Amino acid sequence: INVESQCGDADSIRSYYKELIALRKHYPIIARGAIRFTHKDTQGLLAYERSLDGHRLAVLCNLTADEMTVALDATGDKLTGNYEGLQRSAGAVTLRPYECAAVWYVSANE
Predict the structure, then answer these.
(1) Is the dihedral of CA 11, 16, 22, 24 positive or negative?
(2) What is the gyration radius of the CA atoms in the chain, in angstroms?
């Protein structure tokens, strides 16, 4: 992987990290929010919640090559992730292999 090959490719790792940096600048909760790790006993899952000024954001990262269903009571919009959409069911999300997603607990506009 080199920068030249990733420039202009909206699906490149470079573009994804540029998006993450822009989100970090736009949403103070990402940089300054309190952090609380969740789902600590679920192997292969990095999960935490950021909170700031009454807003909450759940971040879930499946670090395995297998799908994983995780309890999640966040019902707001997905802020970002490395897959299109989000596979939700009642009180849970199913993360695809190596999927990471950030989800608001309520809509960011509320």
Answers:
(1) positive
(2) 14
Rounded to the nearest angstrom, the gap between the alpha carbon of residue 77 and the centroid of all alpha carbons in its chain is 11
Q: Give the pairing of strands 45-52 and 55-62.
A: antiparallel
Residues 78-92: pLDDT tens digits?
Answer: 999 999 999 999 899
Q: How many Å apart are CA 102 and CA 110, to the nearest integer?
A: 17
Specify the pTM.
Answer: 0.85
Q: What angle do CA 45, 49, 50 make, to 5 degrees?
A: 140
20 compared with 70, residue with greater pLDDT: 70
Return the ∠ at Cα 34 (arms to 30 and 38), rounded to 5°: 95
Other C-beta atoms within 10 Å of 59: how many? 21
Burial class of residue 1, CB neighbours in 10 A (0-12, 13-18, 19+): exposed
Are the CB atoms for 49 and 71 separated by under 8 Å?
no
